[in-house]
Design a protein that fits this description.
Blueprint lengths: L1 E3 L6 E5 L4 E3 L1 H13 L4 H8 L3 H19 L11 E4 L8 E4 L5 E4 L5 H11 L1
Antiparallel strand pairs: 1-2, 2-3, 4-5, 5-6
């Protein structure tokens, strides 16, 4: 049997087993307050009266959400690659540093097709 209640902590439901459901806005507020505090996650959860595993899952979900929005690939979030040309000749060496730290060296322009395929695969 569940009871529906709305309090200052935004508990949506509480059942006989002691499981509670919180509104998403409350979860977001708590995680934001935790990120601005200097407390450990366990101490902050205890301070708010939330079980630590529940709170840890909220923090992990917020991190995943932030990471996925930072890696958005729909064109809004462009990434740049540093490229250096070794000289003025058409077949001069090309050095490319990829975002993960890998470095690609091209010794001739005939390797550009391979590089294009590599970059398509990595993006």
């Amino acid at each position: 049997m569940t009871s529906t209640q709305e309090t200052s902590t935004s508990i949506i439901k509480s059942d006989r087993s002691g499981r509670t459901r919180y509104s998403q806005s409350y979860k977001d507020e708590v995680v934001a307050a935790y990120q601005q505090s200097n407390m450990s996650a366990a101490a902050f959860a205890g301070h708010c009266g939330i079980k630590y595993p529940t709170f840890a899952s909220w923090v992990a979900k917020a991190k995943r959400s932030n990471a996925s929005s930072a890696c958005n690939t729909d064109g809004d979030n462009q990434q740049f690659i540093l490229a250096e040309f070794g000289g003025t000749q058409s077949d001069s060496p090309l050095k490319i540093e990829l975002p993960g730290g890998a470095i690609v060296h091209l010794s001739s322009s005939s390797q550009l097709g391979l590089l294009a395929e590599l970059l398509k695969t990595l993006s």
